[in-house]
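Researcher: We're teaching a course module on how sequence relates to structure. For the next exercise, students receive a sequence and then see the predicted structure as tokens, so they can try to spot secondary structure elements on their own. Here is the exercise chain.
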Amino acid sequence: MASVSPSETLAQAPRRLPSPGAVLELLKPVTWFAPMWALGCGVVSASVPALANWPRILGAVLLAGPLVCGTSQAANDWFDRHVDAINEPNRPIPSGRIPGRWGLAIAIAWTALSLVVGALLGPPVFVASVVGLVLAWVYSAPPLRLKANGWWGNTAVGLCYEGLPWFTGAAALTVRMPDARIVVLALLYSLGAFGIMVLNDFKAVEGDTQLGVRSLPVQLGVRRAAILACVVMAVPQAGAIALLFASGRPFEAKVVSGLLLAQLLFMPVLVREPKKRAPLYNATGTTCFVAGMMVSAFAMRALLAGEGS
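Model: And here is the predicted structure for the students to work with:
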């Protein structure tokens, strides 16, 4: 019988603690960009000096990206571990790189840390953190498991990725409820993000159908879901444009109008072949969408500065 060296025995032994690399993979840093961008819009729109408030900005960035968004990713992987064992066995939990119940423990610990940081940034941010964390858990966890139905799941993701981070960025700097126009813009772009989430569902129509996941392409059919995505992305942006015109910011309103027009030109191509063209539209139309968010944020900054807020 061949002898086994101590080093080989150690390598074959089941892991008891997760490696730092596996934990980072569980938290999925690639998903942090969207909420951090929205948080940046909130910071810009608050019309408060950034350099003098850099500790609060840093805390808000950590809260929106690594903490709340990271919590949602850890919770999602924990509750999807049985499905991932079949479809993505190399994910950290099913592969054993995060052993036992460590995936759940990390999600709980990140939730607690998120609440602490949110509380340090003031009552409005704390409330937003609680809402975001509740949605992060019920999105994946039974019995609600919002992700199983596209209407509820996409609404939750749109709010967590756009509206709440935007609100958090503004509230973290002002240490109070942001201006009502900022809140309206955040909600409008949250609704528009619902359409972006629908675009992400086209790539998994067959798998969702087999697993009983009621994404909107499954419920409505691919073409009707694409039309819905286009409408839900466009109408809130039209609302944002109207708000900017009404607030006396015609230049920024025209810029956002141009960005919306560019999206409208791409939309017929998307509707003709949704599954094939969704990645291209994400690289073009969605880019125009998020650029419009930042233009709107700068408009609010100039508006509030002019009003002396």
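Model: If you want an answer key for the exercise: The radius of gyration is 21 Å. The first helix runs from residue 6 to 12.
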